[in-house]
Specification:
Number of helices: 2
Mean pLDDT: 79
Structural class: alpha+beta
Number of domains: 2
Strand order of the largest sheet: 1-3-2
Distance between the termini: 39 Å
Largest sheet: 3 strands, antiparallel
Strand content: 25-35%
Helix content: 40-55%
Low-confidence stretches: none
């Protein structure tokens, strides 16, 4: 199953109205279907303003592979940390049968 990732497109604040309309039309034409696009004005008077368009797209195969590797490493690290804490506290947690995976603590 693929996840969707958020992408951003920024437009500087010093453009003519015609250039802005053209850029927005170009961005809209290039967006995937059902991307849930949003447009926001960001920034301030000191650093300037930007129009930011954010939208969701499907992950590439490469992004999904990287995420899968990191998810496995994170899961393993959490399991090791849980085992360490259980050994430190002398408490064992296990999934109670019929309780939808809720943990039962036995001291």
């Amino acid at each position: 199953m693929k996840r969707r990732v958020k992408e951003f497109v920024e437009i500087a604040d010093h453009v003519s109205l015609d250039d802005l309309i053209g850029k927005l039309a170009e961005v809209r034409a290039s967006l995937p279907q059902e991307c849930e696009a949003e447009m926001r004005l960001r920034g301030d008077e000191v650093f300037g303003h930007r129009i930011t368009i954010s939208y969701f797209r499907e992950q590439t195969d490469e992004e999904a592979e990287v995420e899968r590797r990191y998810a496995e490493a994170t899961r393993e690290a959490k399991e090791r940390e849980l085992e360490r804490l259980q050994a430190e506290l002398g408490v064992v947690c296990y999934a109670a049968p019929g309780k939808r995976g809720k943990l039962k603590i036995v001291a």
